[in-house]
Predict the 3D structure of the following.
Amino acid sequence: MLSRRSLMGMMALTLASASVQTALARGRAANLSKRLGLQLYMVGADLDADLPGTLKALADIGYREVEVAGLHGRTPEQMRAKLDRAGLVCTSCHLGLEPTAPGEVSLADPSAAIALLKSLGATNAVAPSFPFMRYLKDRPDASAALKDPKSAGVLISDVAHSLTADDWIKIAGELNRAGAQLAPAGIRVGYHNHNIEFVKFPGGQTAHDLLIAHSDPKLVDFELDVGWAAAAGEDPVALLKRHRARIAQLHLKDVASVTPNTNFGIAPAVVGRGVLPWSALLGAIPGSAVRHAYIEEDPPFSTSPLKAAANSYAFMAPLMARLGV
């Protein structure tokens, strides 16, 4: 039988371990306000027109980290050099589970994905959506529809609503496989949501729930886009709390209003000028697995994308600092 001294010792070790784990979790989110990031998709047209000038403008605003969603005609090495010169760090890159265009690097080619990420200096590879292209192979209208953002949204939404729970479970398996392939290189695989992942199946589970339940936490993280979650009628604060151990990155996106839907419908707003409960959301970050956060706004913009990025930063960074995030 355990002596009282042994029992007390074991309790002390357990409490100490819990304290360490809490401290580590808090450490993941420490100083997000000092290294607030931007998803570069938001300023894509500006980057195409003037890559070095746009990156410098973002750094001058105060951004320190970026998430890449394309190389804007540069090689990974050239992109890294431009980022370095501007004082920006690429911490994450959006890569599909499959290519959406010929020659595109994706998680289906682990060697190419690792080479790309290593060149950029990124340690996170995030699938920006489910692999919709495989479901469009027999659709003669797909090629033309995908060239128009509105038509593409309708088409991809149709595909998403045709998927079964088993389809989403298989996609979770693909994330596991990619995670296992990239883990030896020190790269974490993740999944980014829109609102289509919150379609519900009998029993109340969403596609997002299925992806989380059937992916391996040792291999796969999630990037919660709080704006798209809100557009689906979900509570992003509750989502972050419920999946605090699985959500490693955030897209900080605001919405002007919410008409719940799972059809790519969203009313974008500059961060801080919409309806999201930012103090509650940021207050849920400490103690979670969140390591990076990126401002993003979807078009159409009420002002220029760079001005929107500046206005969003001016709201978010001081609020984060006040809340100790």
